[in-house]
Amino acid sequence: MPEHLGLTVSIPVFFNSDQSVDFPALDIYLNRLCQNQHIYALYSMAYNTRYRMLDKGELLKVNRLVCTTAKNYGHRVFVGHPYTFTKSDLVEYLEAISCDEPDGISMLYPERYFSEVDPIVEFLSVPQSLGLSTVVHEMPLVSGHTGNLINWPDDLIDAVFREINVCAIKEDSKDDNIALKVLHSAVATNSIFILAGGGKQRALNFLPYGIETWLNGSTVLFPDLIDRTYLGFINGDRDFINFYNERIEIPFFAECVSVFGWHLACRAALYFFGHGQLFERFPHASVTPAMYERMSSTLTRIQREVGKLF
Fold this sequence. Notes:
By secondary structure, the protein is an alpha/beta fold. It has helices spanning 23-33, 56-72, 87-98, 118-124, 126-129, 154-163, 176-188, 199-206, 226-234, 238-260, 262-272, 289-307; strands at residues 7-10, 39-43, 77-79, 104-107, 134-138, 141-142, 149-150, 166-171, 192-195. 39% of the residues are buried.
């Protein structure tokens, strides 16, 4: 068994030119990814896995493929839920996916926050009412009063950990103070804390606080590098850390993500490195030829550097 938890790896989804889901590309990607040992969980999630672009049947099919492949390799797997639903729809979906034995259901509150804790706690409790484990996707809420994004208040954080058996929490506030509060609550309740956002440097900053897993970020582009990257960072291999940050991650974020945003930069880079096609599904924004051309020189340089790690 691996000494540490391993990396939490998000799952991209791919599309064909006719906007259908490219299941063969997803299958190939998953099988490459699953050959790594140092994986805490495969995580099919709202945005990277394009849930809002999928109908309920497609989402179920995608998540069944993710569950089956993960289980074939002995990996843990978390999957999410549709985002347009009644409660009966949600229960029906969770009952269907429960047959594929996910290790946790990622719950992302889809409505506005009106300073009332109970509706969120009730929503997050649905999986455990069906005998499933809850993975909380904690990220800023939309205020029902102002429309502004607001971080989870302390009473909500406390209520969630007090009233729900949280198996893991994806901390996605991008705010270190909130992250440390959530980490403290997770440790106190034996929940796994998954740090999201901020890149590998932020993960390094949180290692002294005892975290053992974080979202894979840029390594989504390099499924063959999961083990090498995780071990390099968790064990403090400064030569590897400096090489990866300075020659791979920082150029990608500075020259691609900061210009075009994570989702378009990631799509372009996935395609460049041989994973799926460039196509998106309406109404998601798509990578234009001009965008791709602008990113290609950076990606070519990164490709040369990645080659030195094999």
